[in-house]
Amino acid sequence: MHFILKMAGLVLAEISGVIANQMFWVLMLVILLLYKKSSSIEFAILKTRLSLMDKMSSSLFNGFIGGLSGSFLVVLLGITIERYVPYNQGTFASGITYIWIIAILVAMVNVRYLCFSYAGGLVALASLIFGFPNVYVPGLMALVGLLHLIESFLIWIDGYSFSVPIFVKKSSGKIVGGYIMNRMWPIPLVLLMLSYPLLTSISQIAANPMPSWWPLLNHNQAFSYLPFLVPVVLGYGDIALTQVPEKRCRRSAYRLGLYSLILIILSITAAKLQVFAFAAAIFAPLAHEALIIWGKKEEEDGKPLFDAMGDGICVLYTRENSPAKQMQLEPGDRILSINNNILYSENQLMEYLGNYPTFIWLEVRKPDGSLTTKEYKNYREGIKNLGILIVPKNAGMYFEINDGASPAVNLYNKLIKKKIDISK
Length: 424
What we know:
By secondary structure, the chain is of the alpha+beta class. The chain is built from 11 helices and 11 strands. It folds into 2 domains: 2-301, no CATH class; 313-390, PDZ domain (Pdz3 Domain, Roll), CATH 2.30.42.
């Protein structure tokens, strides 16, 4: 118990310094700009923008929860990336630098490759095969696994927040309704720098007796383990066509969490047997890519939940404080009739509500096939709309699913176009 309290105190002491960390505020600014840019989709669909302040405060709060829990696990396991750093000769940041460089390079091929799974795997393989960069592979891969474990936790609790309804054109040409999820979290992460020689005078960890099993990943009592705060950003982008956003996020989080645990176990084993270091380095990018392909195929080939075809009209989205919210209409519900008048299109619903009825009852079929009746009344003003977004038979605006943009190709095309324009 004393050991746990000591680890928690160390993490809290380090994270408290994030307020003065310039990089953390740079990352906050990046998140703010990206959220602001994505608000154009919200306005195009909903004719309003979701609160930017609510998005940022939610991301900040949940990011700190993820940072606290992840930092505690880092210190508990004793995760380090460098083999060791001689005192006053180099910094812990050098190992992270290699990963960021590779991540940016592979992101030029496709933006979705901007992930530590791919960059970390490549850096680890280079270190194992060529001896450069000089990183501690079990620690590096454990860190990748831990970051994805934090990400899976955040997706589970917050990934579906501020989801935006959209209309999507599938590869078959059919247009269906769906949701896009786009969340980012600033993570104040406490990592460890392995320093030599032993510096008990400045090491908060080495200055106290530790359990015989600690650390799991690089057991050597001749080293000092110095805490080091590294702000990072974790993000989640996905699309939900066959499920409501919350269920889609829960499924993605479960799979990513399982992936993370397997990678962490491989990394811990690699600290004892080097062959598992190769296994972890190969597993990280390949398994992550398999998860992406699997999830995309599910949404592309699965039965759409928000389909205009079929009986009645399909509810895609309900506005806050609307009659639909008060009737507890939910995304995926199908309104079959209003006051015993069978509905075939949204125009019929609008025409009926154009008479400002004071009392309505709806026959609704839930996604599981069950039927229910919803009632609403407004004797003072009448009911002029339900506050819902319907999946139309023919959407005037829609998005298409693709594999992601290639910044390198886009830049090349712009340069070629510019060259042609100049030549003219």
